[in-house]
Amino acid sequence: MTTDETVVPAVHRTARQRAREQITTELLGAARRQLAAEGAAGLSLRSVARELGMVSSAVYRYFDSRDALLTRLIVDAYDALGATAEAVAEAPESTAEAAAEDTGDLARWVNTARAIRAWAFDHPHEYGLLYGSPVPGYAAPETTVASGTRPSRALVGIVARAAAAGRLAPPSPAEAPPLPAALAAELEALARQIGADAVSPEVAVAMIGAWTQLFGLVSFELFGQTRNMVVGNAALFDAAVTRQALAIGLR
Amino acid sequence: MTTDETVVPAVHRTARQRAREQITTELLGAARRQLAAEGAAGLSLRSVARELGMVSSAVYRYFDSRDALLTRLIVDAYDALGATAEAVAEAPESTAEAAAEDTGDLARWVNTARAIRAWAFDHPHEYGLLYGSPVPGYAAPETTVASGTRPSRALVGIVARAAAAGRLAPPSPAEAPPLPAALAAELEALARQIGADAVSPEVAVAMIGAWTQLFGLVSFELFGQTRNMVVGNAALFDAAVTRQALAIGLR
DNA sequence: TGTACATCAGTGAACGCGCGTTCACTGATGTAC
DNA sequence: TGTACATCAGTGAACGCGCGTTCACTGATGTAC
Known about the structure:
Two copies of one chain form a homodimer.
Chain A: H1 4-7, H2 15-38, H3 45-51, H4 66-89, H5 105-122, H6 124-131, H7 144-148, H8 150-164, H9 181-193, H10 201-223, H11 234-248
Helix pairs in contact in A: 2-3, 4-5, 4-6, 4-8, 5-6, 5-8, 5-10, 5-11, 9-10, 10-11
The structure holds a DNA duplex.
């Protein structure tokens, strides 16, 4: 809950504009609170309006429809998680206080994974909105795509930079059969497309594996399909994530 | 849709009992169809009743409440997926037609993973019910736990049997830091508890990693959070799953 | 084999609820002259 | 600085919808004698 008014100098906004921004923020806040309490399916325009003491039709001055509100929540959540991940993945080499810390690529990856997990725990329903089963009757518009890839891009970036700098030391996949040519070509094209030319298909497979495992772990922990498994344990999370990162070749 | 009447000799069931079983089956079928069409949140007792031409209150002769119906669907889905996985994971050594096929532990694991993925694609909403974000307002009763672990147990079984037979050859995790003692102890206790004493903590971590990656991959593919990633590609799935299985030590 | 009673599937009406969205309106805020 | 008009946030009523669950009932099926 940032108090924007005190921060932004309010250049030349009219009272109307300021009120509009503030109420939009309050609506989103209420919507987020309800999302946290009830989940996406329980989010209704009427109850959001109620929370602000408005009449339900007034919300239509701010959002075209329930789906528009949902879309906004999704984009904001992707951006929040993306920003969290980026902050760790792209942290400067070392800071005064953390000079002794390991700031190698491996640590960067593991810390980013931890940050994603922590965010998911802090915002379980928002995480569910992003990575859980789709909200019935809701189709995400194209607008969400750019934000939607931010968290993954933060992770990919770590590997891409390490690969470009020649710092990647992937273990030789001794016994694994070679990738089918078509798949290797597809992965190579994808790497070029996102500006990660130095990432080999084998590394790409390891990376996608690490990435899906990360979200698999978090989802299992969060959605609680693991009543009698050890998942939900930070040490296990670290161990699994570290091993995946090593398989990518991060050091 | 099995036609039970022709199979079961109808030992001594009254007309009432047979009608009850048949209508229960039809209700579940209709519920499953609606689950597939609308998702869990869109499943309603009234529409299920409507589909069978019943009045909504009549459903209460068969299910205590909407939640009871949902629970039944969940248990059935776990059992269906569990049975599918078990059929592959515990298939006899070799059959006449597949004598030339590789029936090693590695192939067993990969085939089981494929079967799970295929089932998920065939039953996307049921998969979502099991492994997606929780249905709002619904709390799964304890009854679901036994069925809920079936799919995982099928996978664990492959590793446990291979380990017990001394067929496991896990690669030495050269650079990975050793597991914290507390975690290692916990994993060892867990292995003993499920009768997989031969599974070492390192192998357990690899296994949990492979398991979570599997469900992560399937969820990403199915829930479509991957608009511009390569996920959704069977060859990639195979490659990733195979590499995880090798990391466990399956051969 | 026939009768009396108990069981139970299905009906239809009702209760009370919440939802998204539209629409004509009032009254305050902003803008152009 | 003052006035006339345009913009727009918020109101309140309404439409039409679907939901889960309860309840007294009818009539067919099953059971005990």
